[in-house]
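User: two proteins, same treatment. go.

Assistant:
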Amino acid sequence: MSEVSIDTPGAISIAPNRYALCIEYQGTHYRGWQIQSEGVRSVQETLEKALSVVANEPVHVVCAGRTDACVNATYQIIHFDTSVTRSERAWVMGTNTNLPEDIAVKWAMPVADAFHARFSAQQRRYRYVILSAPVKPALMAKGVTWTYKELDIERMNEAAQYLIGEHNFNSYRAVNCQAHSPVRHVKHLKIYRSGQLIVIDVAANAFLHHMVRNFAGVLMEIGCGEAEPIWARQVLEAQDRRQGGVTAPPYGLYFVDVHYPEEFALPKSELGPYFLTAAD
């Protein structure tokens, strides 16, 4: 509920309501999450326009983690402040009515002022989905990354062990990454099969620009036998992006989870994408 506050004699202002929303989107037709130059489609701008219609006032949102062009999300968390009060159903159904078919609000809830979608997050999680098959896919052409090469997930998991823990990931971030520090703590990195698909599942306190795609590029080269598992550690220790191999395509990359302190009581992620048969 909004509260009336008096800042100066004779002036009455309304303290804003803060809401958290869970957003799912297919990134194929967007140049990433963040608002960019005029005429360039972004998920953020599209969502803000839809929310502003429901609020009947301008709405500006903050997300848990920015995603690149063509990257998808099944559990992107955002928050925003507004002077109006709407039901949770109104935020979900009303916003979805004003969104294109490739973006959807999954749930909405009021949160305390202390909640911040980005700064309250303790851990983020991505899944990179690969189809290793002789022939390219048609139905999931932009939903997975395809390779005709056969991948050995045992070799990939062996290499992944070198990347777990707190490290300087300078070799695994984009040259134009703007993060102040290349140090991140990877808490989980596992490669497994889900039907015909291969999944790289990685969680960390935070990620650098292109970090997951650079992991995938190195692990795929190791998986197909073009490099040995130790190469993952050699790239890490070089602290030089030029030693890091190819950046894997954005297709097949999904932002699937964010952890927050229990006090905020946000609904848990279902750990998509839905077409995976092994989600743990």
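Protein 2:
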Amino acid sequence: RVFGYEAREIQGRDMAELIIPARYRARHRAGLAHHLATGDTSVLGKRIEVEGMCKDGRELPLEFTITRLSTSGSPLFTAFIRDLTETRKAQEAQRESEAKFKLLFEKSSDAILLLDREGFIECNAAAVEMIRCRSEEELLRLHPSAISPPFQPDGRPSYEKANEMIALALATGSHCFEWTHRRADGEDFPCDILLTGIRLGNRQLLYAVLRDITERKRAESELRD
């Protein structure tokens, strides 16, 4: 089914001629000859990715696992073959998705920070500019508590309230709120924060988008006056 043959078409025929593209056949035969001549078993039992060929000439990615069933007399091998076409498509889609995310992350005019329970693990250029650090490395070395004043405007300790905001984001998927941050030069400023919980592999992370709302707060104050 994978290669497009019926059983009667392949029995007794050279596997290399049937399912291995011409450019790889010499290497395949050399490897088989080496195994038979030396008894080298380094490739047996391992998963090997190769290009295969269908009856109609179409090529497809395969995973081979070859075992030798007989140790004496005429050699007898079993090849377990898996079509990797869908796996490769999924991998390519994931690479494209990661590339798009990286581009959006890096080029966003909003400050973006990626963090876990231990601290920051990634940031973009807009975040470095907002916090007024000299580099991404300097910002990533800071603990999240270092870019907030000890207390928020409502009088609550920043550390205590931050834990509450994180817990809400993880419990509900995302959470938006106002926060007072502190730049590296000591200036405090208000911002909107959107926290979103995401999973990356086995890790639970927080995707934080920060927007400086200093001008908005100033306009609101002037409007009240």
